[in-house]
Amino acid sequence: MKNMLRLGALMLGTSLLLGGCAATASTEPATDQGPAAELRLGYFDNVTHAAALVGLQNGYFADALGDTKLSTQIFNAGPAAVEALSAGAIDAAYIGPSPAVNTFIQSRGESAVIVAGAASGGAALVVRDGIDNAADLAGTILATPQLGNTQDVALRSWLNDEGYTTSTTGGGEVNVSPTENAQTLTLFQSGKIDGAWLPEPWVSRLVLEAGGHVLVNEADLWENGDFPTTVLLVRKAFLEEHPDTVSALLEGHVTAVDWLTQHPADAATVINAKLTADTGKALADDVLARALTEVKFNVDPLASTFPISLAEAVKAGIGKDGDLNGLFNVALLNAVLAKHAEEPVSAGGLGTE
After folding, report:
1. The pLDDT of residue 167
2. Less Cβ around it within 10 Å: N or C end of the chain?
3. What pLDDT is attached to residue 30?
4. Of 144-153, 205-214, 251-260, 310-319, which gets the smallest average pLDDT?
């Protein structure tokens, strides 16, 4: 059942690590106020967030939003994005499942809801030469993007399965060190850390630019390799107040995902154009080509995996249970999909379809 424990560990581990980060919103229902004057969107400059990159670069969001102003903010990892969303600084975010579930559980379902999937796959543990199996990890230092982000909790969960102890404050049989992705690459190249569990394109950068090798591809821990890496999360109040604006965001999102699946030969060019605009530097062609082979783009959030994983995690004693009912609202997404003559997605019994 290790493959089914992974996401539950992500959800519960983050809830334990970041218990105080999500603000509890008012339980008073909001009313539809029509289209918003502005939509503030968060995302990461990662290949796993390619739907955001393509949607912005190709103008799909702007076209769909019409008169609604679109502003964006770039984050390194999910907990920081959730903090901004919980504080009302952004309205929606492309984010990993762990921080999304954490804010939902901590706010008792009042902070935010998942309205779509965006990507699956594209995360792995990359290590240096001399580490060939789990037994070689004793005494090592491994990095993750941020304490409590999806990859951080995935690594800690996997290490626990392998019999290792870790600590959120450093130390343990394996020292997990939350580190910004670009710094992780530098530290790995200099030999100051032994590996890292990261999303793409950082997995490919550590492999191709720093001589690392993949010890654990997270896809191998899941049936058919399908595990959610990125979802689209929206503040619950914003959804209630501006459903038309969220529908427009989803229109741009579906268009971007469809474009990614229909134009794989052109994806690298568009993604690199946006990365260059954001960071001033494009990814190497071989890095981006490798990264794109590891990620699947799909609007299905794979909702049905969440309760199974949570139940398995609770049974294994990893953490406390949490109520996931209402975590998903894919009704607006399914309306957009119907317009595109595409199949609806399921909320897995955990929300509105």
Report:
1. 87
2. N
3. 67
4. 310-319
Amino acid at 335: A
Which value, in Å, is the radius of gyration of the alpha carbons in the chain?
Answer: 19
**Average pLDDT value for residue range 205-231:** 93
Query: CA–CA separation, 206 vs 333, rounded Å?
Result: 36
Question: Residues of the chain with pLDDT > 70: what percent?
Answer: 88
Centre a 10 Å sphere on the Cβ of residue 1 and count the other Cβ atoms it contains: 12
- Which pLDDT score is estimated for 99? 84
Instruction: Quote the DSSP letter at residue 135.
Output: G
Q: Which of 255, 329, 306, 274 is nearest to 44 (CA)?
A: 274
Helix (H) or strand (E) holding 44: strand 38-44
Question: CA angle, 208 as apex, 192 and 281 as ends, to 5°?
Answer: 90
Q: In what order do the strands lie in the sheet with 141-144?
A: 175-178, 141-144, 195-199, 123-127, 213-217
Which residues fall within 8 angstroms of residue 343, CB to CB, at 6 or more apart? 337
Q: What is the pTM of this model?
A: 0.86
Compute the residue count for the chain.
353
Buried b (16+ CB within 10 A) or exposed e, 100-122: bbbbbbbbebbbbbbbbbbbbbb
Mean per-residue pLDDT for 114-127?
A: 97
What is the rounded distance in angstroms from the CA atom of residue 116 to the CA atom of residue 201?
22
Separation of alpha carbons 283 and 165, rounded Å: 35
Calpha distance 39→89 (Å, rounded) = 10
Q: How far is CA 194 from the centre of its chain?
A: 24
Contact partners, residue 91, CB within 8 Å, separation at least 6? 36, 39, 40, 41, 85, 234, 235, 238
pLDDT at 156: 85
Say what the pLDDT of residue 21 is.
42
CA separation for the pair 173, 119 (Å, rounded): 32
Distance CA 319, CA 321 (A): 7
Whole-number average pLDDT of the chain: 88
Residue 13 confidence (pLDDT): 43
Give pLDDT, residue 1: 39
